[in-house]
Amino acid sequence: MAEIQPRRHDLVWLDPEALDGLEVSADDRPRLVDWLQQARPLVTGRREPGDARLRLGFTVPGMGARRRVGVIAPREARVRHTPPPLLTDLCAAAPVSWCATLIDLATDMAAAGHTIRAYGSLVNQHLSAQPCLRPDSDLDVLTDCTDRAQAIDALRVLDRFGDGHPRIDGELRIGGWAVAWRELAGALGTQRSVLTKSDTAVRLMSVDEFLDASHADQRTPDPLAA
After folding, report:
1. Where along the chain do its domains lie?
2. How far is 148 from 141, CA to CA, in rounded Å?
3. Cα dihedral sign for 129, 130, 131, 132?
C-alpha cells in the first residue's frame, strides 16, 4: 500500500539514526541533534511539487527572538506522523487565562460538528515544555471542512471567539486547500481573492472557488511512493 504523505502542520517524528541524511544548516545542526534526542516531532511545511522529500522545521523554544530550524528529510527517515494536536489536548500547556477560551471554542466547534486543532507557539510550548508564548501571542487553530456550508458554519463560531483572549488566528481548510480564516471571513460577499495554500503550492482564489474546492481528503496515497 502506498504511503500517506504528511500535510502542512502535521507532526513528524524522525529516526535519530538518520541524522546524517538530514539537510540542515551547519549552525542549526546541534539544535536539530538536541531536538531529536528529546524525541520531539518536527512540523511539516510546504514541499516542492514532485519532490518526495519532507520539508520540516521547528522553532527553538524560548522567549527571545524567534529562530526557526528548517530541515529536509528523506521519506525513509520518518518514523511516524500525526495531525496537529487537538485544541482540547493543549490546556495543560496553555496559560491559565487561556483555558476557558480553549475549552469553550472546542466545545462550540464540536457542537457544530467540527474538530479543531492547533499549531504554532502553543503547540511548541506543549512539545518542548518550555515557555514559548508571549503576552501578545495569538492562538493558531486549524479546522477541516468538507464543503461551503460547513466552512460558513465554522467561520461563525470562530468569529464569536476571534477577538477574545487569546486572539484566535489560523486556517480553515477544504479538501487540499487552506486559507486564513480571518481573510476568508473578511472577503465573504466581495469580489476579492484570498491567498490559499496547499501542501505543494500557493495561489490566489476567488472566495467561491475556495468554498467550492474539492471535497476529497488530501490525505490520499502519495503518488511518489513506491
Report:
1. 11-82, 87-211
2. 19
3. negative
Cα of 225 vs its chain's centroid, Å: 23
**The pLDDT of residue 2:** 54
Burial of 112 (0-12, 13-18, 19+ CB in 10 A): middle
* pLDDT tens-place string over residues 109-125: 999 999 999 999 999 99
| CA of residue 195 relative to chain centroid, distance | 16
What gap in Å lies between CA 85 and CA 20, rounded to an integer? 29
Torsion of CA 184, 47, 218, 149, to 10 degrees: 0
According to DSSP, residue 57 is labeled E
> What is the pLDDT, as a whole number, of residue 64?
80
Q: Is the bond preceding 221 in cis, omega lying within 30 degrees of 0?
A: no
Mean pLDDT, rounded, for 190-200? 95
Among 221, 203, 210, 200, smallest CA distance to 175 is for 210
